[in-house]
Amino acid sequence: MSDLETTSGSGGPAGVTDGPIGGAPTTQTQLKKVKKQKVLLMGKSGSGKSSMRSIIFSNYLARDTRRLGATIDIDLSHVKFLGNLTLNLWDCGGQEAFMENYLSQQRAHVFSNVGVLIYVFDIESRDVERDLATYVNIISALVQYSRDAQVFVLIHKMDLIPPQMREDVFVQRVALVRKKTAEAVAIVRKASLSQPQQQTSLSPQQQQPGSTSPTTLPSDLEIDMQLFATSIWDQSLYKAWASIIHDLVPNLAVIETQLASLGVAIDADEILLFERTSFLVVSKWASREGETNPWGDRFERMSNILKSWKHTCSKFTGTPRNAEQFCEFQYKMGSTFAMFVTKFTTNTYILVCMPPGEARFNSAKLNVAAARPWFKYLDGPPAGVLGGGGGGGSVASVQNPYAVGSLVFSGGERGVGNPDS
Asked: For the residues of 52-120, what is the DSSP string, one character each?
């Protein structure tokens, strides 16, 4: 991502090096300093943009979104996500007058320095041609001013399509959207060839590495695009938004490495790391056994289940929607498996799924508690660690006092020296 500044210097390559289990901790990391990520949420009026935003970030239930009114112009919000990532979310009204304004008077203002565009299509729209024409204009503006932006297209309200037809309808719409995306890129390229001397309308202060004008459009440009079928009534919405957020999280590689080390140390089948407010899956790890799980949508299902559980807690405790209603949740399925969900850091919950056994279960909880301070550090590095000023050239090399080697108990290989084997 162009908005991520990777620290560099004499501290060696970015990443994590862990000592052997039981040995001295030797973890060293280089952390990334992240700017605010500008995220455009666009689509036709009534397509469901504000509803999905309210469900994900404001803890609305699907049925509660019926009370939401139409977005007027641009609804700007700052969503703090995992400590040092802030989403600068622009929810853009989809009425035709607003769309024309975005593409003309506010073109440079809206489409400059964009990190992510989320475009929502209403699958039940009666004017598909006009929707696609608007989409082509939006992509053309995005390519002109933020060619490195990621694009996520959500084919929304798929619950209105009969189940047996959904896959075919989605495949057809994906092909159509990809075709129109190529047309949008071709339009900007043609403009760049016909006006070779055209100058960018942005001032030097406004120009960023991710922004461009038609005169600098490369011939091999490809849009980084993903498409999802979504509905506010099932877990598909969580799958789409988890994918959107996943690539934006700073230091994700470091978090995933530490999560894998923790999973091996406690002999878990699977570990999920959730963002506290939205319960989107930020990171996950699975053992060889865990990878054989046939339920491919289990992560989104767990997001949905835990979000519903949080609403239930809120209802019976009288606490606000965004408050923390529970600290821990445990479930033991006899001789099949056991799992627990517990608050992990300020901004995360962790889910650990493992084989049955009381001793293994209790030791896993102790290990998670022992690892918590290190993940808390990655969640939001204290001021000064990332280096001074805005140069982004200083080294953040950190000794980890909570490396996996110092964990309280390790179950080892299953069936070998394990108290529950």
From this structure: HHHHHHS---GGGGGG--PPPSEEEEEEEETTTEEEEEEEE--SHHHHHHHHTTTHHHHHTT-SEEEEE
Residue 218 CB-density burial (10 A; 0-12 exposed, 13-18 middle, 19+ buried): exposed
Contact 145, 114 (CB under 8 A): yes
Range(s) of the chain covered by CATH 3.30.450.190: 252-384+397-406
Place of tokens 């989320």: 118
Whole-number pLDDT of residue 288: 87
End-to-end Cα spacing for the chain: 45
Classify residue 195 as left (phi > 0), alpha (psi -120 to 50) or beta.
beta
- 151 Cβ contact partners less than 8 Å away, ≥ 6 residues apart: 116, 117, 119, 139, 142, 181, 223, 224, 225, 226
Q: Alpha-carbon distance 380 to 31, whole Å?
A: 10
Range(s) within the chain of domains with CATH label 3.40.50.300: 33-246
What does CATH list as the number for 252-384+397-406?
3.30.450.190
**Range picked from 221-225, 346-350, 366-370 for highest mean pLDDT:** 366-370
Taking the C-alpha atoms of 18, 285, 263 and 254 in order, what is their torsion angle to the nearest 10 degrees? 30
CATH of region 33-246, choose from 2.40.160.10, 3.30.420.10, 3.40.50.300, 3.30.1330.10: 3.40.50.300
Kindly state the DSSP code that residue 334 receives in the 8-state scheme: T
For 211-264, the pLDDT digits (tens) are 444 445 555 567 888 999 999 888 888 888 888 888 777 777 788 888 899 999
Strands (E), 210-364: 224-229, 270-275, 281-286, 328-333, 337-345, 348-354
Interval 270-276 mean pLDDT: 89
The pLDDT of residue 133 is above 50: yes
* Residue 32: band (very low, low, confident or very high) from pLDDT cuts 50, 70, 90: low
Decide: 173 and 155 in contact? Cβ < 8 Å.
yes
Mean pLDDT along residues 193-199: 56
420, 357 Cβ separation under 8 angstroms: yes
Name residues whose C-beta falls within 8 Å of residue 176's C-beta, 6 or more positions apart in sequence.
132
Task: Specify which of 121-130, 243-252, 373-382, 406-415 reaches the highest per-range mean pLDDT.
Answer: 121-130
